[in-house]
Amino acid sequence: MLQVTNAELKVANFLVHHNIPLAVADHLSPLLKNIFPDSRIAKQFSSARTKVTCMINGALAPEYHKYLVSAMQENPFSLSTDGSNDNGLEKMNPLSVRIFDIEKRCVSTQLLDMCLTSGPDAGKAACIFEKIDEVMVNNNIPWLNCIAFSLDNTSVNLGKHNSIKTRVTQKNPETFFMGCPCHIVHNTAEKGAQAFSDVSSFQLEELLVDIYFWFDKSTQRKAGLEEYCQFCDIEYRKILKHVSVRWLSLELAIDRVLKQYDALKSYFLSEDKADARFKRLNTNFTNSMTEVYLLFFSSILPVFTSLNKFMQREDPCIYLLASQMKSFLQKLFGKFVKMAVIKNASLLQVEFAEKQNQLCDSSLFIGFTTKQRLLQLEREDITPHQKKKFFDSVRAFYSAVCEYAVSKFPWDDPGLENSTFVDFKRRETCDISTVEYFVNRCKCNIC
Known about the structure:
The protein is α/β, with parallel strands linked by helices. It contains 20 helices and seven strands. The strands form two sheets. A five-stranded mixed sheet has the order 4-3-1-6-7, with helices on one face. A two-stranded antiparallel sheet has the order 2-5.
C-alpha cells in the first residue's frame, strides 16, 4: 500500500491548483532535503511524478468529485460543454459545472466528467447527450437542479428538433439556454467584413493570413523586413497570426500591420518573387486604398472587441448583458444613421438600411486617422470612383452588422430582462416580479 505523508499530499494539491507540470515533482524531494537539512518532514518527503499522479487520481480527485456531486444533488447549478476537435478515436466533451460553493461563499467552475464519445456518431446530439445523461444518472444528480446549460450555437447543440437542447428540456423544461454570445459578436463582425469585401473586393482576413505565413518560418524574409523597417525608421515587430476562430485576434493583427505598414509596403513593392502568395500581397500593397481599408477596420473593431471582452469576464454579468447589447447596437446606428431616425423609432425598428436614413459620406464614421489618410490620398493618387467605392463598402459593412445583430441577438429573452434587478444601479426601476420570475422558473430541490 502506498504510504503518503501530509506534506506530500499538500504539495500534490498545490501542483494541481496552480496547474504546474507534474514533472516538477521529480526535483522537489532532493531540493527540500537540501534546503531544509534539519527538518524531519523534509527528510521523509519522497514524492516524484509517479507518486504525485497516484495521489491526484487515487486520493484527491475522488474527494473533490464527491464534494461536487454532493453539492449538485442539493443545490442549483449550470452546465457547460464543448466538443474537442482532435483526431483520436474518442471525442472529448468535457462537462463543466458552475455552482455556488457554500464553504468558499463564491461561485466556482469545476470539471464533472470528460463524457467521451466514440464511433461514427460521436459528434451527434444523441450520442453526446447519452453520455451526459449517464453521468447525471450514475451520480444521482437530478436534472431538476440544472437551471442553465451553456453551449455554442451549432445545430447539434441548439437545434429546434434534434439537439442537446431538445433532450435536456425533456428532462427539465425550465433549463435556460442562450448559446454563446461571444460567437454571435464574432459572427456579426465577420458578416460585416464579408459585406465590405463584396463591394470593395478587399479580403481582410486573407491579407492578414498571407502576411503572416509569408514571413513565418523564414528567418531570411524576417531579416529582409527588418532592413526595410530600418530604412523607413520604423521599429521592427513580429507579425501576429490571425486565426478566424479566435475572437480577439483580428484587431491585434491589423494594428500590428499598420504599425509597420510603410516597411511592409516597401518590402512587397521592391522584392520580386514568383510565389502566388507574394503576388497577392504585391497587388494589395500596390493599391493605395489598402491602408485606408485597414485603418477603417482598426477604428471600428474596438466596438466589437469591447463587448466580446465584457462577456468573457469571470464574474457573472448576465444581468448586464441586455443593456450591453442595446448599447452595442446604438453605437453602430450612431455611426451611419441619422440621429432623428434613431430617436423616432424603437431600437429594433430603426430602418437603417434605407439610404435616405443614413448619413452622407462626409459624416459617416470611419475613424479620424482614416479620414485624414483618405484626404491625403485624395490629393495624390486615388480617383473619385475609388473614394465612392470605399464609402459604399462602409455602408455595406454597417448595414450587414446591424442586420445580423438585430436578427441574431437574444433581444426578447425574458431571463436577460428579468435579471437586471441584480444591478444595484437599476434596482429602483425593478419590482418584485423580476425576482418571482426566477423563483417560479427554478424549481430545484431546495425550492
